[in-house]
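Q&A log
Question type: sequence-to-structure
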Amino acid sequence: MEIPLATFRKKNNRWQVQIRRRGHASISKSFLLKSDAQEWARYMEQQMDRKSLPYDPRALDAITLKGLLERYRDEVIPKKRSPEREINIINYFLSQESKLALKSLSEISAADFCIYRDKRIKVVKPATLCRALGLFQHAYDVARKEWNYPIQENPLTRIKKPEIRNRRERRLSWSELRGLIKALDGCVNPYIKPLTLFAMYTAMRRGEILAAKWGDLNLEEGLLAIPITKNGYSRTIPLSKRARWVLKRLKTTPTRLSDNIFPVSEEGFRMAWRRVMDRSGIENLHFHDLRHEAISRFFERGLSVPEVALISGHRDFRMLFRYTHLKAEDIAKKINI
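Response status: OK
Response body:
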């Protein structure tokens, strides 16, 4: 918390006190006795600490959006688990939106971000734009709550975010599965095929698989601990016979030199996956679709929603309902047994 600065000077047999603090207009008053001036100064400083005095918007004149985002990028984002993407978002914004970025915070309003939103949505997906707007909104919140910037209202909270409609329900057909296996057999990297099969058998995310370590695995009991997940909660998942079969084959490979179960980099796997898709001829298949495929198969095998959630890591059971693909005829058979 910034400490208010009170200065005292004697002028014409009276004590004049002036208090300056960023975010508040400078205030002053004169007293006959210095003790009265000191008492008044202490009271006004307490009022500033309680924020009961109005902010002075002129204090934001010298702070640009660029300065705010650069400080947020350099001080806040590096403390996050995966900072690279958010750093790139801010750097791209600063390089492409210099006119907006150079505006002072006292000039910027919700309308400015609405203009940016309407222009940006023409070239990026709604999820990409929402990610950037959410990042800017958090930067404002940090500046207001932690850095004592005199921001009375976060302009990002007032604008309407684009609706995200990118839910995918892609399933693999048997012919596509055969084509995928054949394409995986052609990979030079020996870990790409087992990694892909492991994804289909566990419903794990790509990042979780690439971060998985042998020390987190209890192969005898068929359990794999996942200490770092997308939603921030660790979990331990049970492994099927097929998933354990993949790991047993890897464990006996004499070339294993890494603590990671699948020693492949993020970029290396992205490039390999693109080549697999080119060889397979399968259209519109994302690696993340294998997670949907695995979860759907778990439901087809009769697992309950809580059981699947234990494996997939979903904390909101409602998110799993779209995977069930319930058919009225199947339910009719069950209730008529």
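Response note: The CA atoms of residues 171 and 293 lie 6 Å apart.
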